[in-house]
Amino acid sequence: MLEGKAVIGETDMLQTMQDDALQLAAKTLDFFDVNEATDIARVIKQEFDKMYGGGWQCIVGTDFGSFVTHCYGSFIHFSIGSLAILLFRGSAAPAIDEFSGLEGVKA
């Protein structure tokens, strides 16, 4: 487990959801070593899917960059010690009309 308080970098989540994310991360870190980032991410993602419905994505590590599209109200990036956690619900792209961009093309 990492010692230290969680520090939130960016979020647009409601406070209750933020609290859930921070508590879940702390609880998960009690069971996994910091080097088991994939396992930590899996547990956090699966628990948020259960709590708030599907579509959650979780990235955990000590050095990563990101550029993501997310649903409003479902993004948090925080760190506990040297470990950073990015948790968000992915935003589905708008439906694409299969014939868009084919004006003037005859079938």
UniProtKB/TrEMBL annotation:
Gene Ontology CC terms: cytoplasmic dynein complex; microtubule
Protein keywords: Cytoplasm, Cytoskeleton, Dynein, Microtubule, Motor protein
SMART domains for this protein: Dynein_light
Gene3D superfamilies: Protein Inhibitor Of Neuronal Nitric Oxide Synthase (3.30.740.10)
Recorded GO MF terms: dynein intermediate chain binding
Location in the cell: Cytoplasm, Cytoskeleton
Organism: Ambrosia artemisiifolia
The protein's name in its UniProt record: Dynein light chain
UniProt KW Cytoplasm keyword: yes
CDD domains according to UniProt: DLC-like_DYNLL1_DYNLL2
InterPro entries assigned to the protein according to its UniProt record, in alphabetical order: DLC_sf (IPR037177), Dynein_light_chain_typ-1/2 (IPR001372)
Family as reported in the entry's similarity comment: Belongs to the dynein light chain family.
